[in-house]
Amino acid sequence: MHIYDLDTPALVIDLDVLERNIANMAAHCQDLGIALRVHTKTHKIPEIARMQLAAGSQGIVCQKVGEAEVMARAGIRDILIPYNILGPQKLRRLTALARMARNEGHSAITVAADSEETVRGLSAQAAADGATIRVLVEVDTGGGRCGVQTPEAARDLGRLVADLPGLELAGMMTFPSNPRAQPFFDCARDLWARDGLPCEVLSGGGTGLEAVSKELGFTEHRSGSYAYEGLTRIKTSADLTPERCALRVIVTVVSAPTPDRIIIDGGQKTFESYPPKPYGLVVEHPAARIQAMSVEHGHVDVSGCDHRFRVGEKLSVIPLHQGKVTNMHDEVAAARNGEVVCVWDVAGRGKVR
Amino acid sequence: MHIYDLDTPALVIDLDVLERNIANMAAHCQDLGIALRVHTKTHKIPEIARMQLAAGSQGIVCQKVGEAEVMARAGIRDILIPYNILGPQKLRRLTALARMARNEGHSAITVAADSEETVRGLSAQAAADGATIRVLVEVDTGGGRCGVQTPEAARDLGRLVADLPGLELAGMMTFPSNPRAQPFFDCARDLWARDGLPCEVLSGGGTGLEAVSKELGFTEHRSGSYAYEGLTRIKTSADLTPERCALRVIVTVVSAPTPDRIIIDGGQKTFESYPPKPYGLVVEHPAARIQAMSVEHGHVDVSGCDHRFRVGEKLSVIPLHQGKVTNMHDEVAAARNGEVVCVWDVAGRGKVR
Questions:
Q1: What is the pTM assigned to this prediction?
Q2: What ipTM was predicted for this assembly?
Q3: Residue in A257, A265, A272 nearest the CB of B147
């Protein structure tokens, strides 16, 4: 089936582009000499995670316990959830996951923590359930989000993790990787070494910051958005080319009410509503400007196009916010040269907890 | 179970507020003397649609064929899909729906159309499948989206609908209802009457514009967002009060890295990322400002709060974009006085086609 024969709106992945993006990032990290750990939040699809692992990624990242459950059920081991896991429901699911998913004899599940409350909760549940959870101490090195604020606080929390039952101290993590964090990490590593605390893992993150993590002496880097590629790294929509961007939304022209305007059947609930404008690139007609989004309609200014659009015509649009688009759709068709090869469930979608 | 015992992030509806909002809108339309047709896109939940119908709404609106299928399966009849339905897959599903869902002997399915292409597609499929589809001609009266541009074009398209097999001409629709559209409709009605075209329905829309539709002489008005209430009608976030807004997101404080900052476990994939800031109102601590959103983290400035937030604490947040929040979640708990009464599937979510 050709992608234009799909009912719309339909998410489509160009497999050639996806494979190239995956291979390029794997080669980039190999060249740098830093291990890649792929973040799956962009696609939430086990099949793509397996492609990334096959290309050399040493493990994956999930942002939610529910996403990790999906990936573990698909047979994937070595999963990092860089998030403070709190509350009885999530903790029970986390220990169940850690007991099920073993990686060469070790717990395959690592989480981040930045507080005593989180660490004590993890330990109590793991000890009660006979599980072991690997823990990275999260440090704030300028991101202004989660993370302990000083090397001393990192050492203190590391010490607590090392002392508590059910936990295995793995090291530290931060987001995003930041060149100015060198003094912080130098000091923290020194403090950890003096205390004899293990620091097998130093994990940085952010697509495009792989070299920064290497410079900081990290052991691994977390990148995700590169698989589909989009505005996270490509800063101007003019650079969103079909050769670089794997994701498309196939839409139908549902109305052509004036010579200057067409309406497509994808709006905020298909594309996300956050600017910058235009909201996506029309592959077949780059001069068409998606300039406004209603909830279920896209408003396209076609005054710059010679083409006469007809109602019922299909178009391919490269969206700006791949991860957020993915988060609203249950399935995506994988295609090569315009022909649908298979349809993947976005199996991690909706696993909000 | 108390709403604070739900795992987070969790969507919760305050049933008292929902019922009050539904009753108020029903009374408002009754006072005005205009029939209400509720738009279900805000909630996508058949149970709520039934509450709205019980309160006096004469029918419902769905934006997608898939949403209409969900509502029809739940036993709801008289469904308007104010959208140009195109393409063989959707047309086949539409005629199947029209054959299944009958309303007092008539087709229970009405759609909008603004082009000959749409109308001919509807007719061909309906005739082939032995179905009847009711059609409203969509007119553009300043909304700048879909819709024919002149009264004459409305008449011509109405005539075509009336002439083609498988279709039943019901009247006209527009969005949003606009006082300046009076001359357009006066002229269009006149042209239709001269041609003997039926115009049983004149449908306007937009929560808050009920009186405008009445002034224009319309027979019904489509309102949706009033059920949960939010920024569509309440223009400043200061007015997003717990007494008016039915939807909440229960979140957990997952980090309190500095005295001024807490991080909650809801970000762009829970709340939507589009400003204005703050991104929602923290019910328990209105001085807390949700000032930034990462993909899965909410960044809250608590410098204005006396309360000392602790990691693991639960909070209730009124989101700004109810319909878009709903679109990212599979279920919502309905609660009264803080106690969960039941959990509803957001059954229409993800029905993107």
A1: 0.95
A2: 0.95
A3: A257
